[in-house]
Amino acid sequence: MSYIGQTASETLGRFGVACRVRTTEPLPECTATAELRRGMLMIAKEAVSNIVEHARASAVEIELSIHEGRVRLSIEDDGCGLPETSNGHRHGPGGNGLGNMQARAADLGGSCRIETASPRGTRVVVEVPLSSEIHA
Q1: Using an 8 Å Cβ cutoff, are 67 and 31 in contact?
Q2: Is omega for the bond preceding 83 within 30 degrees of 0, making it cis?
Q3: What does the domain layout of the chain look like in residue ranges?
Q4: Considering the entire predicted model, what is its pTM?
Q5: Mean pLDDT of all residues in 42-51
Q6: pLDDT tens digits for range 2-14
Q7: Do the beta carbons of residue 76 and residue 131 sit within 8 Å?
């Protein structure tokens, strides 16, 4: 699944955003189903698209790990962050991107959290089981 970091890094680089990718070594490609690989790549692409379109970030850090049968993908930017709504939730400026990422993760039997990064920016954390029933 190291291609996720490579794809994100190449895309961000085209827009002048520095990207650092950290992975556990080695990432066992053969244990992930095609559905899992595709779903995680689509989530990463959506997160990167949101960074490019909305975050005004100068740097992004991507961490990808596999531990105890779970894949964890964290994408954190140093951009402007997400606005807080009156009910305390954070959301993007319209569109379905954040909801789509959460739905894709749920379809893979996992979760997707969107958090405020410290001291600024946004962090997307996706955790899904390596072997799961696909709910799509």
Answers
A1: no
A2: no
A3: 3-129
A4: 0.85
A5: 96
A6: 789 999 999 999 9
A7: no
Q: Tell me: the pLDDT tens digits for 47-64?
A: 999 999 999 999 999 999
List of residues 6+ apart from 65 with CB closer than 8 A: 23, 24, 71, 72
Measured distance CA(136)–CA(133) in Å, rounded:
9
| Segment holding 104, helix H or strand E | helix 97-107
Q: What is 12-74 written as a DSSP string?
A: HHHTT-EEEEEE-SS--GGGS-HHHHHHHHHHHHHHHHHIIIII--SEEEEEEEEETTEEEEE
Q: Closest by alpha carbon to 42, among 83, 94, 82, 7?
A: 7
Question: Mind listing the pLDDT tens digit for each residue in 126-136?
Answer: 999 987 544 44
Between the two ends of the chain, the Cα-to-Cα distance in Å is 21
CATH topology classification for 3-129: Heat Shock Protein 90 (3.30.565)
- Is residue 92 within 8 A of residue 82, CB to CB? The reply is yes
